[in-house]
Amino acid sequence: MNHLGRALETMVYDVSEGAPADGTVKINDVITSVDGADVTVPGDVSEAIGDKSPGDEVTLGIDRGGKKETETVTLGEMPDELAGDEDAEAATGGNGKAFLGVTMVAQPADGIRVEYNLKDIGGPSAGLMFSLAVVDKLSPGELSGGEFVAGTGTIASDGTVGPIGGITHKISAAKNAGASVFLVPAGNCSEAASADSGDMTLLEVDTLDGAVDALTAHDKGEDVQTCG
After folding, report:
1. Average pLDDT value for residue range 156-178
2. Mean pLDDT in residue range 107-121
3. Domain with CATH 2.30.42.10 in the chain
4. I need a surface site. Which of 31, 78, 107, 173 has the fewest CB within 10 A?
5. How far apart are CA 215 and CA 220, in angstroms?
6. So what CATH class is 8-108?
7. For residue 64, what is the enclosing H or E element?
8. Domain covering 124-220 in this structure, CATH number
9. Which pLDDT value is given to residue 91?
């Protein structure tokens, strides 16, 4: 959605049982503000809560099924297993970090809903290709240029493409399936260059934007960054 310039919002995916937000914040609530300051993505909410202390009250602006609400929550203390250094926190009598107790996800703010209908495909290494599929669906033209494009890579919320395991096996499988282009995370490029890729072009990518640009350039016959 960031790549496409689409607005995002923060939706509550889960509320931890017994957490400060339990009984106040509900699953599918959209958090629109924290103490009057607008928030867009989960990181905005986490940052705002991170500036608080256990025992502080926080007022959340919420869109609940299209109805604007405000909910006030008294923050608790982050459980040590979620906060990090348990030994240090035990020595000081607590970690001192504020805890709301909700799991949040970013979603399109303009009503778009994405459904994946692939069976037996998942995990973080599918992130780049899932993202490209969504970009292709919501953009004019055909991102693949009519070619059989395969690839792999994790995807971060800022669009960064991360390395994965088993790159040579994935390249071999893509070649055997008839792919002509394979998108390789930059962190896997050295290993990928040693794989038997046949006539398949191995495009090196490190961001979602870069992957889109690489596919576009390759389709136009322009120079592209490859592995090997």
Report:
1. 95
2. 82
3. 8-108
4. 173
5. 9
6. mainly beta
7. strand 57-64
8. 3.30.230.10
9. 47
